[in-house]
TrEMBL record:
<dbReference type="InterPro" id="IPR036390">
    <property type="entry name" value="WH_DNA-bd_sf"/>
</dbReference>
<keyword id="KW-0238">DNA-binding</keyword>
<dbReference type="GO" id="GO:0005829">
    <property type="term" value="C:cytosol"/>
</dbReference>
<dbReference type="InterPro" id="IPR036388">
    <property type="entry name" value="WH-like_DNA-bd_sf"/>
</dbReference>
<dbReference type="Pfam" id="PF01037">
    <property type="entry name" value="AsnC_trans_reg"/>
</dbReference>
<keyword id="KW-0805">Transcription regulation</keyword>
<dbReference type="InterPro" id="IPR019887">
    <property type="entry name" value="Tscrpt_reg_AsnC/Lrp_C"/>
</dbReference>
<keyword id="KW-0804">Transcription</keyword>
<feature type="domain" description="HTH asnC-type">
    <location>
        <begin position="3"/>
        <end position="64"/>
    </location>
</feature>
<protein>
    <submittedName>
        <fullName>Lrp/AsnC family transcriptional regulator</fullName>
    </submittedName>
</protein>
<dbReference type="InterPro" id="IPR011008">
    <property type="entry name" value="Dimeric_a/b-barrel"/>
</dbReference>
<dbReference type="GO" id="GO:0043200">
    <property type="term" value="P:response to amino acid"/>
</dbReference>
<dbReference type="InterPro" id="IPR019885">
    <property type="entry name" value="Tscrpt_reg_HTH_AsnC-type_CS"/>
</dbReference>
<dbReference type="GO" id="GO:0043565">
    <property type="term" value="F:sequence-specific DNA binding"/>
</dbReference>
<dbReference type="Pfam" id="PF13412">
    <property type="entry name" value="HTH_24"/>
</dbReference>
<dbReference type="InterPro" id="IPR019888">
    <property type="entry name" value="Tscrpt_reg_AsnC-like"/>
</dbReference>
<dbReference type="InterPro" id="IPR000485">
    <property type="entry name" value="AsnC-type_HTH_dom"/>
</dbReference>
């Protein structure tokens, strides 16, 4: 789907504040209410807008430890990959899972309260994921940038 300047501006505004009213949104992007609403609905129907969420402050929720884990599997056939990917879905502390190129198969991002909690997660869940050969953990010391906004270009 081709996006014009109004579509892109709608996306930029909604990424900054998904709770903005349609009246405010239409004013900010320079469209009247109905055409703006139609564009939003079209982008939702086309799967460009996939949902609206509330972002939480992990530190205020005592979830200040972020761990990045490289995972190498023993096998790389389709069933092995599918089994691993399905199993990782059930671990709430895993907030992201990416397949990767190169020597490692996956990159996980885990968010927990403490190093002790991570150690428990590692021993009781992560090492028991299907076909895991090797896990390599790296602890984030400080978050320098955190954005959920995609870089929407003007055109």
């Amino acid at each position: 789907m081709k996006l014009d300047k109004f579509d892109r501006e709608i996306l930029r505004v909604l990424q900054q504040d998904a709770t903005v009213s349609m009246a405010e949104l239409s004013q900010k992007v320079g469209l009247s209410h109905t055409p703006c609403w139609r564009r939003v609905k079209r982008m939702e129907a086309d799967g460009i807008i996939v949902g609206k969420v509330t972002l939480l402050n992990s530190k205020k929720l005592n979830l200040g430890v972020s761990v990045f884990i490289f995972v190498t599997l023993k096998n790389h056939d389709g069933d092995s990959l599918t089994d691993f990917e399905q199993a990782v879905q059930s671990i709430d502390e895993v907030v992201e899972c990416h397949t990767t190129s190169g020597e490692k198969d996956y990159l996980l991002k885990v968010v927990v309260e403490s190093i002790e909690e991570y150690e428990n997660l590692l021993k009781n869940k992560l090492t028991h994921l299907p076909l895991v050969d090797h896990l390599s953990s790296t602890f984030a010391l400080k978050q320098v940038k955190n954005t959920t906004q995609l870089p929407i270009k003007s055109q």
